[in-house]
Amino acid sequence: METDYLKNKFEQKNYNYYGKFLKEKFSSKVFKIIVDAGFTCPNRDGSKGFGGCNYCNVDSFTPGETRKGGTITEQVLRGMERAKKSYEAEKFIVYFQPNTNTYAKTETLKKYFDEALSVSSNEIVGLSVGTRPDCIDEEKISLLQSYTKDFNVCLEFGLESIYDETLVKINRGYSHEEFEKAMKLSQNKGIDLCVHTVFGFPWETEEQMLAVADELNNYKIQFVKLHHLHVVKGSKMAYDYKKKPFKLFTLEEYTDFLCKFLPKLNPEIFIQRLFGISDWDELIAPNWKLKKTLIQNYIENAFVSRNVFQGMNYTQTKN
After folding, report:
1. What is the maximal distance between C-alpha atoms in the chain?
2. Cα(146)–Cα(123) distance, rounded to whole angstroms?
3. 79-120 tens-digit pLDDT
4. What is the DSSP string of the chain?
5. Could you give the CA distance from residue 198 to residue 209 in angstroms, rounded to a whole number?
6. Which residues are CB-neighbours of 247 under 8 A, at least 6 positions away?
7. Phi, psi of 57 (to 5 degrees)
8. Cis amide prior to 286 (ω within 30 degrees)
9. Who contacts 180 (Cβ-Cβ below 8 Å, separation ≥6)?
């Protein structure tokens, strides 16, 4: 795809960045408010397993403000106040993030979602729900559809890997076929879809990881979150890493990977994240010893210096 076209399309960056979507969609400064509704996961409560994903410690990606707890209303109000004060936010998306946020009866989900969205009808513009592909069905999709009349609704699926061998090793508790079924069920329903993937599992090759771009291109998704593998305290992977450390991405290596991955990705997909973040007090490795903004700048500067654009090598597939 012609780089001049992509430059005009992306405007300020070399990729289709989330901030551009928010600006075009809402014409306001929009901030996500993370809510913990107290859900668990089927690979934690014994339904499909125990201990959760091997790399996961929920606290490692849940902000401290959210970990203070409180009712859903209290969490939303606290998050809005903080975002207004720290970031001059004007509008808000309520983001049900920790654990699996469709892992309950539909009437329970409706109760929680209704409460969150009713906190401030003039300021809340969206609902984002993080879940697993094996915890969605037609009834829950219909519930989410019901909110699209008044809110921008996003359903976020944890893909993590497209390889069943990896899904077994990390104790995800479902197959890639189940992800494919969930995507088919969720597409064309008026709901924005976001896919979360993790790169850097030590047994996956670069070729295997780059193939994830082709898989993402197969679906009608609006967003993607790209993360590198973290080893965090309290996870099963942390125990394994302590016994026998394994190779993880350096910042330079991950940037090199993204410079190969990004050109393959459909330029219509908005990228919400280029890399993962974890609280430093929870992180074991890899510690790049840079703040988020400096990591962002390093990666984006590499895109510019190497003339790398999202979608420059994209070829449309079965979509």
Report:
1. 53
2. 19
3. 999 999 999 999 999 999 999 999 999 999 999 999 999 998
4. --HHHHHHHHTTSSS-BHHHHHHHHHSS-EEEEEE------TTTBSSS-BS--TT--GGGTS-HHHHT---HHHHHHHHHHHHHHHH---EEEEEE-SS-TT-S-HHHHHHHHHHHHTS-TTTEEEEEEEE-GGG--HHHHHHHHHTTTTSEEEEEEEEE-S-HHHHHHTT--S-HHHHHHHHHHHTTSS-EEEEEEEE--TTS-HHHHHHHHHHHHTS--SEEEEEE--EETTSHHHHHHHHS------HHHHHHHHHHHGGGS-TTSEEEESS----TTTEEE------HHHHHHHHHHHHHHTT--TTTT------
5. 9
6. 202
7. -135, 110
8. yes
9. none
Rounded-to-integer distance, Cα 188 and Cα 152, Å: 14
Domain boundaries, the chain: 3-305
Length of the chain: 319
CB 79 within 8 A of CB 63: no
Helices 206-217/251-261 angle, 10° precision:
40
Q: Which tokens is 173 given? A: 């508790």
Take residue 36 and report the two structure tokens written for it. Answer: 């913990």
Domain spanning 3-305: CATH 3.20.20.70: yes
Question: Is the model's pLDDT at 253 over the cut of 90?
Answer: yes
33-65 residue pLDDT tens:
999 999 999 999 999 988 899 999 876 555 555
